[in-house]
Amino acid sequence: ADVFIEIKVPGIESAVARCLRRHLDNAERYAVHAFDHRIAKRILELAPSVRIGILQVSYLVDTRSVMRQSGATDLWQHADFIDASLVTDVHAAGGRVIAWTPNVESQWEDLVTLGVDGICTDRIDLFVDWTESAR
After folding, report:
1. Residue 50, Cβ neighbours under 10 Å: how many?
2. How many CA atoms lie within 13 A of 60 on its CB side?
3. Does the pTM of the predicted model rise above 0.90?
4. Which value, to the nearest 10 degrees, does the dihedral of the CA atoms of residues 97, 100, 104, 110 take?
5. pLDDT tens-digit series, residues 61-90
């Protein structure tokens, strides 16, 4: 399974990085993200091989610049703030867009059409049913 670790409070970056460094042989299977972009940057400094993401609940004028400054390759964007332009921009920079927390089929359909790379939902049961019926 892939593991996505969200750090919600500052001050634990060293402990998290120490744990992640013990599992570098599986680094492609996990990523760390945070709303506090300074935390994401600090994790990258402590564990350079870890995939880093930042969370947002806004549409920035220059998202790629913020991603570069934090070292992030993943953008965890609130579903209400994702459009084709954002997805294209992040993909052009080599990043991934992960939508959070769309919970209904119509949102999932729209996000898939936009080309997001992942969907994080509270309704895993319904999402799994939806993905299986779409095959």
Report:
1. 21
2. 16
3. yes
4. -20
5. 999 999 999 999 999 999 999 999 999 999
